[in-house]
């Protein structure tokens, strides 16, 4: 019984951390940053960025789903989240400056950072669309509704990155990356909170 309760709470925590991250760094920096990751170089926001994303990564690694596929997939997502912290994005004023705990040139670190970020959102989208929609019993009305939400969230996480194409237009906002990340993390958070059965009218009592 305790394992079930802890798992549900863990899902809520994972979802809440993801949804809160973009708004926390914006609040701390008192600005709309170009991206969430750029706040690694902010004196005041770097702690929040590392702690929130790192905590979400650790929770994903510790998460135990219904089968091995859930466990392995969540672990991969968690590792990607932690790697985002280990490999900061490029430091734009001087791409050759050493950065991160491994002291790599920031342009080299940025390669691993981008791969980890795409892996993070890609795996989470896969979980929402393909794993959260599985069922071992009768497909109830609540489960059907939740499956629609999971699929919308999975598509939303990947589809939001299409907004990056706006960078080809002069009128694109300078903080477009932050906007895309905030949208993707919103879908991520909704997916996990729904999965936790924290929303009463979606809870399958059966």
Task: List its traits.
single chain, 206 residues, mainly alpha, two-stranded antiparallel sheet, 63% helix, 2% strand, globular, disordered N terminus
Q: Layout of SSEs?
A:
Elements: H1 2-29, H2 46-62, H3 68-86, E1 98-99, E2 104-105, H4 106-131, H5 141-159, H6 176-195
Antiparallel strand pairs: 1-2
Helix pairs in contact: 1-2, 1-6, 2-3, 3-4, 4-5, 4-6, 5-6
Question: What can you tell me about this protein's structure?
Answer:
Residues 1-5 have low confidence and may be disordered. The chain has a two-stranded antiparallel ribbon with strand order 1-2. It has helices spanning 2-29, 46-62, 68-86, 106-131, 141-159, 176-195; strands spanning 98-99, 104-105. With 206 residues, it is mostly helical. The longest helix is centred in the first third of the chain and has 28 residues, at 2-29. Helices cover 63% and strands 2% of the residues. The chain has one domain. The chain starts with a helix and ends in an 11-residue tail after the last helix. Helix 1 (2-29) runs antiparallel to helix 2, helix 1 (2-29) packs antiparallel against helix 6 and helix 4 (106-131) packs parallel to helix 6.
